[in-house]
Amino acid sequence: MKKEIKPEKPFIYDYTLEQLQDWIKEQGEPAFRAGQIFDWLYVKRVSSFDEMTNLPKPLREKLEAGFGFVTLTEITHFRSKDGTVKFLFGLHDNHAIETVIMRHNYGNSVCVTTQVGCRIGCTFCASTLGGLKRSLTAGEIVAQVVKAQQLLDPENERVSSIVIMGIGEPFENYEATMTFLRNMIHPKGLNIGQRHITVSTSGIVPNIRRFAEEDTQINLAISIHAPNDALRSKLMPVNRRFPFEDVIDACKYYIEKTGRRITFEYALIGGVNDRAEHAEELADVLKDMLCHVNLIPVNYVPERDYVRTPRDDIFEFQRIMQKKNVNCTIRREQGHDIAAACGQLRAKHMEATTG
């Protein structure tokens, strides 16, 4: 296994405001300096400590000695006809991650990555090709949104929502994901509304329950993709660790604890999980839950054999769900012409660089 290359210094974006306040106190500096640093990072969005001109030079030197900025080197990017922009960024250790900016009529959404690769093993997803290399730090997740905002700044636009649906399983990188979320929603940070953020998990049961205790308004989405244990285990090997029934029980606990609706993501795969009997079975499982089902026509991945569900069958699946009083919508596709599904761009890059 390739040896992990550690950054020389911790990333400044790894720190919450409260952690920066503790650091400032240790340096013998007045507490308000932490707020100034946070302002430079998230409001003015500078790229070096030298630009923090209202800080004393000795403090800037301490910051330079103690912290680094996340290196996100743009390897390539693609722009879709619908305005979606997908970036492939290189990290300090030569790994690559993907970040996507999606344009909606209600604003700009950023889809972020939480891990380099993924070990969950979903058979329809390109993210898992090559397995998991490492988890990102909180700062490396933060930097993706800051980078996106910097790209929008010249247009006087802002990131209005975030989806944690990029490469990786955020609930297997729980602490870093939560630090990232706290920085995103902080009034002195990017100040993104909690209800404009969605975190998606493949069903890591202990952390679904843990997330229920976090007292946030952040949306939770669960990748479900099958109506029963047997089929879900074929599509999602993680189901052998966290069986379908346990996932549903954890979701019911989350709903009871928070009073918030859960979104179930269901990728429709032609001839695999998209038949009428699958819709009937899924509706029976979910009919009494405060939930919403998001149907996702599967993206073609060259390394997989799956095909897309015919359009009429997609609408029939939705009709059956709605007939049984389960709220169900079909996801509007974006970036289909630029391989915007998770992991596709990175997979191509890996193939090119490894021969």
From TrEMBL:
Binds 1 [4Fe-4S] cluster. The cluster is coordinated with 3 cysteines and an exchangeable S-adenosyl-L-methionine. [4Fe-4S] cluster binds at residues 118, 122, 125. It is found in: Cytoplasm. Belongs to the radical SAM superfamily. RlmN family. Specifically methylates position 2 of adenine 2503 in 23S rRNA and position 2 of adenine 37 in tRNAs. It catalyses: adenosine(2503) in 23S rRNA + 2 reduced [2Fe-2S]-[ferredoxin] + 2 S-adenosyl-L-methionine = 2-methyladenosine(2503) in 23S rRNA + 5'-deoxyadenosine + L-methionine + 2 oxidized [2Fe-2S]-[ferredoxin] + S-adenosyl-L-homocysteine; adenosine(37) in tRNA + 2 reduced [2Fe-2S]-[ferredoxin] + 2 S-adenosyl-L-methionine = 2-methyladenosine(37) in tRNA + 5'-deoxyadenosine + L-methionine + 2 oxidized [2Fe-2S]-[ferredoxin] + S-adenosyl-L-homocysteine. Keywords: 4Fe-4S, Cytoplasm, Disulfide bond, Iron, Iron-sulfur, Metal-binding, Methyltransferase, rRNA processing, S-adenosyl-L-methionine, Transferase, tRNA processing. The active site is at 98 (proton acceptor), 342 (s-methylcysteine intermediate). Its cofactor is [4Fe-4S] cluster. This is Probable dual-specificity RNA methyltransferase RlmN. The gene is rlmN. GO terms for molecular function: 4 iron, 4 sulfur cluster binding; metal ion binding; rRNA (adenine(2503)-C2-)-methyltransferase activity; rRNA binding; tRNA (adenine(37)-C2)-methyltransferase activity; tRNA binding. Residues 104-337 form the Radical SAM core domain. PANTHER family: 23S RRNA METHYLTRANSFERASE, RADICAL SAM CORE DOMAIN-CONTAINING PROTEIN. It comes from the Bacteria.
